[in-house]
Amino acid sequence: MTYEAFNEFCRSLTATSYVIQWGDSHVWKVGGKVFAIGGWEKADKPAFTFKTSECDFLFLSDEPGYRPAPYFASRGMKWIQQYDLSVTEDDKLNYYLKESYRIVSLGLSKKKQKELGLNQN
Predict the structure, then answer these.
(1) Could you tell me if residue 81 is inside a domain?
(2) DSSP class of residue 116?
(3) 60 contact partners, CB below 8 Å, separation of at least 6
(4) Which pTM does this prediction carry?
(5) What pLDDT band is residue 86 in, cutting at 50, 70 and 90?
(6) Is 120 part of a structural domain of the chain?
(7) Which residues pair with 18 in a beta bridge?
(8) How far is residue 83's CA from residue 99's CA, in Å, rounded to a whole number?
(9) What is the CA angle 69-51-116, rounded to 5?
């Protein structure tokens, strides 16, 4: 996945905002809370960081091309960084980005969720 495709996907999710921070990383937020980061890898290949469930964190930590996210995971947070996957893995990455968005949005107050039109099923 390119950063352009990453940004396009994240932009398509409801009530997201975008900033460049932390050394030119592409940072996506929902309700002011980070759910995805594009960048933060010194290699030439793109890297993408996202929040996961406990189960996905354990699973992805052992998968090729994924690792516990630098900084986040060392502080006990369940964040994963995808740093080395082929283009054929874009659907898989999109799934995890959307899951991160869902997890973070559910952590917002009920009032904030309602204001943003999130999780109102």
Answers:
(1) yes
(2) H
(3) 52, 66, 80, 96
(4) 0.90
(5) low
(6) no
(7) 28
(8) 18
(9) 145
